[in-house]
Design a protein that fits this description.
Layout: E1 3-10, H1 26-30, H2 38-54, E2 59-62, H3 70-75, H4 82-92, H5 94-101, E3 112-115, E4 125-129, H6 136-139, H7 142-152, E5 159-161, E6 179-182, E7 191-196, H8 216-225, E8 233-237, H9 240-243, E9 254-257, E10 260-264, H10 271-282, E11 288-292, H11 299-305, E12 311-314, E13 320-325, H12 327-330, H13 332-343, E14 349-355, H14 358-361, E15 371-377, H15 378-382, H16 392-405, H17 418-434
Parallel strand pairs: 1-2, 4-5, 7-8, 10-11, 13-14
Antiparallel strand pairs: 1-15, 3-4, 6-7, 9-10, 12-13
Helix pairs in contact: 2-16, 4-5, 16-17
Bound molecules: N~2~-(3-carboxypropanoyl)-L-arginine.
């Protein structure tokens, strides 16, 4: 029985814009107010899916959410026609309107935590949508995320869908961005590493300047409901100092694949102990650690380039590919670090792919943010909605769909345009047909 790691990438939504909504995420603040290009953003994301599919990986697609989020705007007291709701919100509460228009669901690493069947006592794949309570604009995602996950993995013989954790900061959950699974083969039981930024019920020193988003208690709750074996679960605290330097998720400073961990030397508190605990949990076979020191690449350079927000992928010939954003080429220390790793015969990272994801990067989302990893056996893959998987026809259809519906310019003044709402609904309605998801959006009911 073959088992693969499929990557489900978020399709960028038609309202992609730069609203500066994420304090603690340096790129989001730096590019706040700039004009965005939703069409280019969506095409860049599609190119990424194409590139990985062409390399032979199983590549899935995750649709965007309905934005502007009219249900939330009405819940917040705006009423009348849709046009009236939008214009009142733009006048009275532009920041609320911007939050309700964010295309942030594109970063599917934050959509959910997924545990493969090999790790769960009941032998099924478990999904928990992330509540994302740390940021208002992202807290609006989990309900529809849950619907999309159910429509994509729609077979109770193989898939278990949990509700998001309670919507409290005590259980702040940012999904797979703080979750890494180590294993030898994808189908074998693995070790789950949960990285948290704070302990809600046992406060210890945490970040000061920027909020820590993930709580230990959230990760523990997920480990319980996913029925993970406690011997195979490791919890590590993120270094609070790096959160204050813009590392708002662990995947901005560390990435793992199979028995390889690629990270910065300042990623975790008690970093050596974390390595030892992971190695112990993995048993007799070695955990490869590729650690980059502050002298080689500073945390600031890592945050600017998103070196660690890369994807590590096992190629068919068992070599390991690293997929990085083009910003890595522009930061000399990072580029030379990558060249040194590739030249080092003892380094498990052997191949490199550079992608242009500029539109997403300007909001703090690199290659790893854009994908949700779902490990699937061949039976589970066969039970997955096939219309959500990338193939040549789907790539062509989605490319045409983007070119037909997306604008190539979007600024904050455009968010109240009722035509943007209508165009987005038309596009999403068509998309649910392409992906055969049924009615997942409120405007469809
Ligand atoms: O949650 N940016 C996202 C970026 C998420 C990146 N994901 C991972 N690291 N896995 C965030 O901060 C910015 C939106 C704006 O400012 O318009 C935003 O939400």
């Amino acid at each position: 029985m073959a088992t693969v790691e499929a990557n489900f990438d978020g399709l960028v939504g038609p309202t992609h814009n730069y609203a500066g909504l994420s304090r603690g995420n340096e790129a989001s603040i730096r590019h706040s107010g700039e004009q965005a290009n939703p069409k280019a953003a969506a095409l860049q994301g599609l190119e990424k899916m194409k590139a990985l599919w062409e390399l032979g990986f199983v590549q899935g697609v995750f649709p965007p959410q309905e934005r502007p989020d009219m249900v939330t705007l009405r819940r917040l007291g705006f009423n009348g026609s849709d046009a009236r709701v939008l214009s009142d919100a733009a006048r009275q509460a532009p920041a609320v309107l911007a939050a309700c228009c964010s295309a942030s669901s594109m970063w599917t690493a934050n959509a959910a935590t997924v545990s493969p069947s090999a790790d769960c006592t009941d032998g099924k794949v478990h999904f928990t949508p992330a509540n994302l309570v740390s940021k208002f604009h992202r807290s609006l995602e989990h309900e529809v995320t849950g619907k999309i996950l159910k429509a994509t993995f729609n077979n109770p013989d193989f898939f278990v869908h949990h509700r998001a954790l309670p919507a409290s900061d005590c259980f702040g959950d940012e999904g797979a961005a703080n979750h890494t699974r180590f294993c030898y083969g994808y189908g074998e039981p693995g070790v789950t590493l949960f990285v948290y930024g704070k302990e809600s019920f046992n406060p210890r020193p945490t970040s000061r300047k920027y909020p820590a988003r993930q709580s230990l208690e959230a990760s523990q709750a997920i480990a319980r409901s996913h029925q993970l074996n406690t011997n195979n679960v490791v919890y590590a605290q993120q270094n609070p100092e790096v959160i204050d330097q813009g590392v708002f998720h662990n995947d901005v400073i560390a990435v793992g694949n199979r028995n390889l961990l690629f990270c910065h030397a300042r990623a975790f508190t008690h970093q050596t102990a974390v390595y030892q605990t992971l190695q112990k949990a993995l048993g007799t076979r070695a955990l490869h650690i590729v650690e980059v020191t502050e002298q080689q690449v500073s945390v600031t350079q890592a945050v600017n380039s998103y070196l660690f927000n890369s994807q590590l992928l096992t190629l068919k010939n068992d070599r390991t590919l690293i997929v990085v954003p083009s910003e890595c080429r522009e930061e000399p220390a990072v580029w030379s670090c990558l060249q040194n790793l590739l030249a080092d015969k003892g380094c498990p990272i052997t191949d490199l792919k550079v992608l242009n994801l500029r539109q997403s990067m300007h909001n703090g989302g690199g290659p790893a943010c854009l994908r949700l990893r779902v490990v699937l056996s061949d039976q589970e893959l066969a039970a997955t909605n096939p219309h959500c998987l990338i193939n040549e026809t789907r790539l062509e259809t989605l490319g045409q769909w983007i070119n037909k519906h997306y604008r190539d310019r979007l600024s904050s003044e455009d968010l109240a345009d009722p035509m943007l709402l209508n165009d987005s609904r038309t596009a999403l309605d068509e998309l649910t047909n392409i992906l055969q998801l049924g009615s997942v959006y409120s405007f469809q009911n």
